[in-house]
Amino acid sequence: MRQARDRQEVSPELGDQPRRGCEHLRGRTGIPPWPRQTSVAILSTAKADVRTVPSSPVSMGVQGGETVGYGQPVGTHNFLIEGVSGTGKTSVCHELRQRGFHAINGDTDLAYQGDPESGEPIVGDPSHDQHIWRIDQVRALAADGRERFTFFCGGSRNFTQFLDLFDEVFVLEIDTATLIQRLARRPTDEFGAKPSERDSILRLHGTRGDIPQKGIGIDASAPLSDVVDEILNHAEMIATTKGA
Fold first, then answer.
1. Given pLDDT bands bounded at 50, 70 and 90, which one contains residue 112?
2. pTM value?
């Protein structure tokens, strides 16, 4: 993992290092870095805001995976961006939206407190173990083929029930020292601000117990622009391989 360089504010979670070019990604991806301004010749028009989706589930009717064992998506190209708390999922979501991509913050737009197995809502104090997404809305958004790429950003305890919707999962990864630094800067009203919550996050960081076990690891200790460039390069290669 890279060590933090001269500090420069970029984002709450991925702002420890100055923005720089992404020449180092060429060897990793085999294609040039993604441009800051997305070409309309490549991508369909993307909306920054999440669309209203029907409340009823959408049937998938698909089986099998081509990359890491997840299913063929029913939309165009759907990707999940995961990682433990503090790895930068929200920052990546904001950056994707800034670049004109359809990115959904699952932790604010799809999440509620419920039973991870049944989906039944649970009333009471919020719990990390009961932080789940509305599966019907995830399926509906994934089935909407108006966008070439749709990125679902965030973590949930019921992700195993909709992994088959995604072309690929990107797992944001950082070292323990960087994670501790980021958690120390969290606002008091965010998960991870309390000592007990930090201890839980650090434990999960070590065990990887509540994130997908298969996926493409992304070095999220890099500057935010480079992190998003790498995700987009992988997404473009996957879409090209599938011929769309």
1. very high
2. 0.70
